[in-house]
Amino acid sequence: MTEKCRCGQDAIYFRRHEGRHYCRDCLIAQIEKNVRRTVRENGLIKSGDRIAVALSGGKDSAALLCILKKYEKAFHISVCAITVDEGIAGQTEKTIDAAKKVAKQLAVEHHIFSFENEFGIRIDSIKNRIAEKEINYCTYCGVLRRSLLNRKAREIGANKLAVGINLDDEAQSILMNFLRGDLSQFQRLGANPIIIEDEKFAARIKPLRNLPESETELYAALNGLVFHKGRCIMPTDTMRWNIKDMLNALEEQRPGIKLQIASFYDRLKPMITKSTGEQVGYCRCGEPTSQGRCRTCVLLEELGVSGK
Q1: Comparing C-alpha atoms, which of 176, 209, 217 is closest to residue 193?
Q2: Does the pLDDT of residue 308 top 60, yes or no?
Q3: Which pLDDT score, from 0 to 100, does residue 195 have?
Q4: What is the pLDDT of residues 262-292, one digit of tens each?
Q5: Closest Cα to residue 14, out of 212, 259, 246?
Q6: Diameter of the chain by CA atoms?
Q7: Contacts of 62 (CB under 8 A, 6+ apart)
Q8: Mind listing the domains of the chain with CATH numbers?
Q9: Helices (DSSP H) in the chain: which residue ranges?
């Protein structure tokens, strides 16, 4: 017998931590309500904001772009999208194609920038340069992508940068940085992880932060959005995947554990940020940094390139 939603329609999804079935329409409404609540409770969006969505071509950023575009008039904001081509043969062609299609599908202004044009490197070409370093591809890719997104968001007039971080991603990052004892990165989590306030820094916001990965993917599929499936083909940080497997197993045994981790972090964060304030300065490249030099310049120098 087909399970029913509370509205009486056939259910397509079961939220285990709620013990409740949802039909298509009620699930979409609940997901959008979750995002609106996250935006409201964390002050993520203000009237007049120009928000650039980091559109990767995957399910999360596609869902995020769709939701923000849907509420563009209600929130009194303007929405655009930025896609970064990291330079991974066999992968970025597919993700960029998906990003182009969903941006066109949603009629959103779309900008594409590449590591090769901006920094003079491709991620798939640095294997020999990092072979002897204790730094993996994810570090280079993550640092350079964040730097480029921030710079380009500023150049196109966006004051906010929305990223498709979901609940699974956030819970993994909380545990990973805790286990590593990395307080600097640990305090940069949350739906509104503003650490440095500066006119050159586009504030990063995470409207999907309290939505599980399964729901962001289903939302994208139910709305007919184009997105690329599959994980990165480059060697990745195995610690994150170990934590992901562990959390998924715990979630299966104790539904809602990921949400509890995120909620606990939110209660803890005010105590952390009070005791570890950072002062903003400027790197010689002109970008804001809490150190003498920005991480982007340090990594590019280690690779023997100066950027462009």
Answers
A1: 209
A2: no
A3: 58
A4: 999 999 988 877 655 556 678 888 787 777 7
A5: 212
A6: 66
A7: 55, 98, 102, 164, 220, 225, 226, 227
A8: 34-277 (3.40.50.620)
A9: 24-42, 59-70, 72-75, 92-105, 115-119, 127-130, 137-155, 167-180, 183-186, 213-222, 238-253, 257-275, 295-302
